[in-house]
Amino acid sequence: MAEETVGLIHLRKASSKKMVDRILSEVFKTRYGDPPIILVQSLQQALSISIPESVQLVNSARFIESVAVYENSPRLASLFASDFPEELRDLLLEVINSHLKEWRNSALISQPSLPRLKKLDWRVDVKRASESMSFMSVPTVLVQLKVEEPKKSLFVESNERTINFEMNKQLLETMVEGLGKIKAQLSALK
């Protein structure tokens, strides 16, 4: 058997397709770090296997889910050894394919990312007075950005926040010049 998928053979002891589905879903939820002892123990009891076999099952499931999510799902069938039970292999492929879209979305959301710009508002304002002068006429730009913070989980709503700032003419010119350079670099990449 292929070394990475050998632990999946323990799923033969699962009582139903629903149980296999639930096990793979739980493994995906805990895909980072060491296998949680609660998951390992519950697999041990549910499938009547040893602790090392439970850990092996979790690691094999993580491997195959990782290939499905991050690489290429058609490649999955080739990961199983030729002597792996065909019925179990087909069941695993069916369950993984049924969750693939959800798991890919979850994986994307869990990646580190920066806030996304949702809306930009601006207006030109003229300051007419200050503490030191009774009259002045200084143009400024007031900018309001609405940004969406990255989601922490697939099931949590994203958080939107507003950022307000003021810019003088010189700072605005510097910013426009910088944005022009960014635009030129992006155009060169196409």
Structural commentary:
The chain has 190 residues and is α+β, with helices and mostly antiparallel strands. It folds into 2 domains: 3-110, no CATH class; 116-189, no CATH class. It is built from 6 helices and 3 strands, in the order H-H-H-H-H-E-E-E-H. The protein has helices spanning 17-29, 37-47, 51-71, 76-79, 86-110, 169-189; strands at residues 116-127, 138-148, 160-168. The chain has a 3-stranded antiparallel β-sheet with strand order 1-2-3. Helix 2 packs across helix 3 (51-71) and helix 3 (51-71) packs across helix 5. The longest helix has 25 residues, at 86-110. It is elongated. The two termini are 45 Å apart. Residues 116-190 form the COMM domain. It comes from Planoprotostelium fungivorum. Scaffold protein in the commander complex that is essential for endosomal recycling of transmembrane cargos; the commander complex is composed of the CCC subcomplex and the retriever subcomplex. It holds the Pfam family COMM_domain.
| Low-pLDDT segments | none
Q: What class do helices, strands and sheet pairing give?
A: alpha+beta
| Number of separate strands | 3
Strand order of the largest sheet: 1-2-3
Q: How many individual helices?
A: 6
Largest sheet: 3 strands, antiparallel
Span between N and C termini? 45 Å
Q: Which outline best applies?
A: elongated
Domains (count): 2
Instruction: Kindly report the average pLDDT value.
Output: 87
Radius of gyration: 27 Å
The helix fraction, in percent, is 40-55%
Instruction: Give the assembly state of these chains.
Output: single chain
H-E order: HHHHHEEEH
Note the beta-strand portion: 15-25%
Protein name: COMM domain-containing protein 9-like
InterPro entries: COMM, COMMD9
Function: Scaffold protein in the commander complex that is essential for endosomal recycling of transmembrane cargos; the commander complex is composed of the CCC subcomplex and the retriever subcomplex.
Domain COMM: 116-190
